[in-house]
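Extended Data, panel c. Modelled sequence:
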Amino acid sequence: MKRVLFLIVGLIYCLSTYANDSIPKADDYFGKAGDEPEIGLPEGFDNNLDSLLQEWHVKTFTSIDQNCPSDSIDPVFSDEVIMKRLSELPNIIPMPFNKSIRQCIDMYNVKKRKQVAVMLGVSNYYFPLFEQTLEKYNMPNELKYLPVIESALNPNANSWAGAAGLWQFMFGTGKMYGLEINSLVDERRDPIKATDAAVRYLKDLYGIFGDWHLAIAAYNCGPGNVNKAIRRSGGKRDYWDIYYYLPKETRGYVPLFIAANYVMNFNKEHLICPVQTQYPLHTDTVVLSSKMHFDQISAVIGVPKEDLQKLNPQYRKYIIPGTPEKPMSLCMPASYTLAFIDNQDSISKYMADSLLNTPMIVEPTAIAKAPAPKPKYHYYRVRRGDTLSEIADRHNVTIRNIRRWNGIRSSKLQPGQRLKIY
């Protein structure tokens, strides 16, 4: 209730902020009326897709299915065929068709075929988690395709704006939905906790707008921007009616969502086969009430450190900061669970001093005082016409110091007189 109230208050603030704005025309966003709408891609979309192929876990754990009748060229299907397929999807969220959606479908099936193949393979690991959480909150199953757009199913994905994880949570939104973010832990990268938070956020957004397309758009650009677009459109509450008034990257967000639903369901028709993956699909979770390092676990029971990193991307420094008051979970391949339980004490002690322990009480190291250096000076022999002022300026000192150093009170000087200058 508090979370929903927070969002509603935020919307009211946005309404009041823009209440006196003049309503711009669609031309202000897209140029001349009648021009073909430009598809805006979400921030980081291309980078996430392209970098997916360079990820260590993709290079290590995936391979091409040699028995797959894959082709590098996408078969061409008519708009009517694609519309029919979209209509056959067992979805609650409407899956309409237009030129923007067709462009997004072609982008996936033509330009990003390799990336789609990788996402299809990786989805065998992540989709059961998404589906279970969506079922828990009675949400549409097709929302599991949002991380395809957000992160290309990469829990280590980052955006220049600071979003992180499979669901690309911003810092503030993650905190608002209970995700812990500090120097050691970033639960935006935790597949389980971030998925739970994302589904709750989407449920709240749908509660605000009562329309799935608007809720999905708000997930991308925030409820305030969607509310502003509704007002600028004259109060229309359909995504396609406010399309021209949304931020540029959000205009392509719903078309991409529909395209992701299409390509992940009809990949075989487009001759795209999932990569074969060696992901540890059978995993188990253990709870730690003491601090442990991935290196300790790997060295004692032999589980590859890279597997721990892949399955637990929320631990930034490879340290699980568990305490009796606040235990932390660790996901690992199920085949290592018993070994971990049997050797937990040995793991905790292994190289603990170098990997984990830091002294709690410290004193600054004393520095021996060096003897004060003896002051250095020289003698200056007064020449005819010299004054104390000139001599002081010449040596970058003061008249007062020259008098003190030489025990003189008068300003009169005698040629040949020696003055001590420090």
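Strands lie at 62-63, 276-277, 283-288, 291-293, 319-321, 328-333, 378-381, 418-421. This feature is highlighted in the accompanying rendering.
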